[in-house]
Specification:
The chain is an alpha/beta fold. The chain has two domains: about 110 residues, no CATH class; about 230 residues, Glycoside hydrolase/deacetylase (TIM Barrel), CATH 3.20.20. Strands 2, 3, 4, 7, 8 and 9 form a six-stranded parallel β-sheet that branches. A five-stranded antiparallel β-sheet has the order 10-11-17-13-14, with no helix packed on it. Strands 1-12-16-15 form a four-stranded antiparallel β-sheet. Helix 8 links the parallel strand 7 and strand 8. Helix 3 runs parallel beside helix 9 and helix 8 runs parallel beside helix 9. The protein binds zinc ion.
């Protein structure tokens, strides 16, 4: 026991394991699966380069939000690949129908450009053409209009949970916003950094591989959200080029949760909302949120010896490993600690 104490195991843990045979709820894990850190990726625009970018992500296990302009002529060619991407755990987000863009933007421009057709219409195009149950994510074309509360309200009213910005491109403000957790305002949401060559009206790109990797290393070490964005038309493909080399550096890590941006923001609300009520030896899980929108799982930490059973069905045990989805149910044991990942509805028992 002295040796255990020297390893820094708390008294509460010893009491739970020695004195209390019953399984005890400890708390909600910060990230799904008890991961140490999160990687989320977003790519913008409807171009012929989108499939190459998604193919590259799939090699390295990166999950992205694919922002498309649903009014583009190219979109019909892309829908089959986008449907496969949804099946593979990516998300399709809206980048409007027609990509209205003006530098610098004005309140008047935004009021006229952000019509129902652009905001609601593009959402409905995605729902019609993919099996996705909801459209969680919006991306402001050219980064325009993100700062206006009246525009943010229009985005929120259409059911989006997060709207990604692209700030101050003309002065390279978009390159490394360095936001490594949830944005203070989800409807003006920045990210960690851009990964792309020079493009658009930006003076430079951000494609120096050692610097890109070092930024990831910093966010990963801090257990935060590494949130990077790219334009597929401003990348280079092939294993040695900067984009894929960066994906290789950050991908397939056993202690990282790979998830698109929308489901990640939905997870924040879901995790917050979940109630765990102990009833004798059972735990009743519940949330008041709409499960069609908040369709993910949460990870709950327990201390005890039994095997978790949810609504009468024994959960599958997984060793630690890459977390590549935001749904599903399984458990992982680390000594006396049991990490149960499950939808937040049902009755959990340990047998
Ligand atoms: Zn765009």
């Amino acid at each position: 026991m002295l040796r255990i104490l020297q390893k820094g195991v708390g008294l509460g843990f010893l009491l739970a394991t020695c004195a209390l045979p019953q399984t005890r709820f400890v708390g909600k894990a910060q990230w799904l699966g008890g991961a140490k850190a999160v990687v989320t990726h977003t790519i913008d625009d409807t171009t012929k380069f989108v499939p190459a970018a998604v193919d590259a992500m799939d090699v390295y296990g990166i999950k992205a939000t694919i922002y498309v302009n649903t009014g583009s002529k190219l979109i019909e060619e892309l829908w089959p690949r986008l449907r496969k991407a949804v099946a593979d755990g990516h998300e399709i987000g809206s980048h409007s129908r027609t990509h209205p863009c003006k530098w610098p933007d004005t309140e008047e421009f935004c009021a006229g450009a952000y019509t129902d057709a652009e905001i609601v219409g593009s959402r409905d195009d995605i729902l019609k053409n993919t099996p996705q149950p909801h459209v969680w994510s919006w991306c402001y074309p050219c980064g325009n209009c993100a700062r206006y509360p009246f525009i943010q309200k229009r985005i929120a009213a259409a059911g989006y949970l997060v709207a990604r910005n692209y700030q101050d491109e003309a002065k390279n403000g978009h390159l490394i916003p360095n936001v490594n957790t949830f944005a203070a305002n989800a409807f003006d949401a920045a990210y960690t950094q851009v990964v792309q060559k020079k493009g658009g009206i930006a003076p430079t790109g951000n494609d120096d591989l050692p610097a890109l990797n070092a930024k990831f290393d910093e966010v990963y070490a801090a257990g935060q959200i590494y949130n990077f964005m790219s334009h597929p038309q401003w990348l280079e493909y092939g294993g040695e080029a900067f984009y894929e080399a960066h994906l290789r550096h950050i991908g397939k890590r056993d202690d990282v949760w790979y998830v698109p941006l929308g489901p990640l923001y939905a997870y924040r609300e879901l995790r917050e909302s979940v109630e765990v009520k102990a009833q004798g030896k059972r735990f009743v899980l519940g949330t008041k949120l709409d499960r069609k929108v908040y369709d993910g799982s949460v990870t709950l930490e327990f201390v005890g010896k039994g095997k978790p059973v949810l609504d009468g069905v024994a959960l599958v045990e997984r060793a630690g490993g890459v977390v590549m989805q935001w749904k599903g149910a399984w458990f992982r044991r680390v000594g006396q600690r049991v990490f149960v990942t499950a939808p937040p509805a049902g009755v959990l028992e340990f047998r």
